[in-house]
Request: fold
Amino acid sequence: MSNYQNTTTALMDITKRPEIIFSAGRGSWLEDQSGERYLDFVQGWAVNCLGHSPDVLVRALSEQAAKLINCSPAFLNEPMLRLAKDLAEVSGLERVFFTNSGGEANEGAIKLARKWGDLHMGGAYEIVTLDGGFHGRTLATMSASGKPGWDVIFEPKVPGFVKVPINDIDALSAAVGERTVAVMLEPIQGEAGVFPVSHEYLQVARALTEARGALLILDEIQTGMGRTGEMFAFQGLGVRPDIMTLGKGMGGGAPLAALLASEAVSCFAHGDQGGTFNGNPLMMAAGQAVLDTLRWPGFLETVRARSGHLQVGLEALSNRHGLGTTRGEGLLLALDVGQPRASEIVAAALDRNLLLNAPRPDSLRFMPALTVSEDEIDLMLDRLDQACLAAL
Reply:
């Protein structure tokens, strides 16, 4: 047993954590200090897109660490250039700025949009965002978010964000005005409980911004990098953004995110944007390993197949227990349990060595590795079935 077991009070207390101390992970499985194995359908909140410690990522990090870890973002490095080129090619957005977290990427998107407004829209600076949206934990990204309760903490907030209900076209149309520089939204609101933006709503957002000369920003930090069964969610929706942010699964577990923008709106001047660790070769190697894997022939088709298998299983389980519907795309799914008992189900699942997440009192969220097998999905469903029997 580790000597660290009784020293967790040294950690700043920022969230409730179970007493488990994890020591190893492989694929869809985590192992604690006593050797107990847990089936992980949280995966760091959709971060470990290839599962825990995949060979391709371990190899890429090891090989790059032996060559060059960081040479300062003031200089170019080959892994940075290659990954930027490949991301631009697969996304259709010509410019890439690498960051270390999704919040930092969204902060950069907000700055870029406001710089655009200053240069091209007479100083327009307001950004329309959605109730329930989650864009990060910096002051600006918290201000942009529509997470309940965040409107009353860490005051004063960064001004200039106008919030409207998701999928309310009339409210969106009324909110876009002379001071609007951008509309910023998630294709699927993950932290809110996996609520997709409708195709029609996104098309209207695109049309409104184009008519205004404003920008459409898509926060694909949770939906990007294969999570929905497409490389990026916008590709399945048929609407191209001016700015897109990526994170979470982009590094496969390593801290990596990015701000992508079209050539036309990439208006940062030298000194406007930067970051000490941004674009370091080590994280670039991780991102390249992930992107190369997602581009393997048949990989995304398999993600879509696993999604269908999971959805069918969740619907059958829901019917057995009298629960609600499923929602989401790809391997970002939620199950409405129909009552505020989701946290009890999560606790009962943990007792059965299954890791799940409850983003809302009435909903479970499923974010397995994109490499999850059908057998692992079936095992999860079996353990979830037992958890529901115990908790409901």
